[in-house]
Amino acid sequence: MKKINPNINYENKVIEIKGLKKAFDDFEVLKGVDLNLYQGENLVVLGRSGTGKSVLIKIISGLLDPDEGMVRVLGQEVNKLKPKQLDQLRLKVGFSFQNSALYDSMTVYENLEFPLIRHAKDMSKGERDRRIHFILDGVGLLQAINQMPSELSGGQRKRIGIARTLILKPEIMLYDEPTAGLDPITCIEINALINDVQERFNTSAIIITHDLTCARSVGDRMVMLLEGQFQRQGTFEEVFNTDDERVKMFYDYNFVY
Ligand SMILES: Nc1ncnc2c1ncn2[C@@H]1O[C@H](COP(=O)(O)OP(=O)(O)OP(=O)(O)O)[C@@H](O)[C@H]1O
């Protein structure tokens, strides 16, 4: 269970969402979602498969347009931005995908250098080198710097994927199912890393997960998407202390086999 985090700034909303709606044909996925992410906070978004968690994250990162509602990220309304402004904003929002998607033909070093060459064109080779060492040290994998992704375990690849997202120093991290497909011990390590990233790099984060052990250990707050809306939110206990059968089923699925 996570301790109360004194570093969250509840005066500063880094993401603010109001009345967000999104449908595909006549299937309404998000039916008027309100959500705030505060600076320094790790917010967990829970929900069964197909409830619209990924759609939410895609709208936040400007990959999908909302049908209705307001989505403000770092003070900017995402769907009102011109393509160049959106590109600039995206550099401040790190997206850690489910399958870390490293480039197999590049070493760990080259995987981390690639986004810097592309997006930080003024950075000298020496600065890039220092940044890569700093970030790799931060995720505990400096020793893997010259290895190929194929030589790493699933958990290590996940760490490098997170490192690659961190390399551009994002203010917000979006983690999509960070522990999916990992064994329980590696899950614990990734959960610890997510908390470490929050502390060391001062990031705010949205973590999408089905894994309640992950939710409980990384979430300062959690919200549960049920039938297109956040119907439960608060601490882990506040979310799950309910007679709502839909919520109980979600809990039982995780802890009772
Ligand atoms: N581009 C799209 N076109 C049509 N339907 C879509 C599109 N993207 C998502 N959907 C539908 O929206 C619903 C929510 O999808 P989403 O991927 O957000 O679910 P999820 O909660 O992330 O699920 P999971 O936990 O399985 O990843 C699904 O029914 C999906 O089929």
Automatic annotation (TrEMBL):
Protein keywords: ATP-binding, Nucleotide-binding, Transport
Keyword ATP-binding: yes
Gene3D superfamilies: P-loop containing nucleotide triphosphate hydrolases
Pfam families in the record: ABC_tran (PF00005)
Top-level division of the source organism's lineage: Bacteria
GO molecular function, one term: ATP binding
Domain ABC transporter: 15-252
InterPro entries linked: AAA+_ATPase, ABC_transporter-like_ATP-bd, ABC_transporter-like_CS, P-loop_NTPase
SMART domains: AAA
PANTHER family: PROTEIN TRIGALACTOSYLDIACYLGLYCEROL 3, CHLOROPLASTIC (PTHR43023:SF3)
The protein, known as: ABC transporter ATP-binding protein
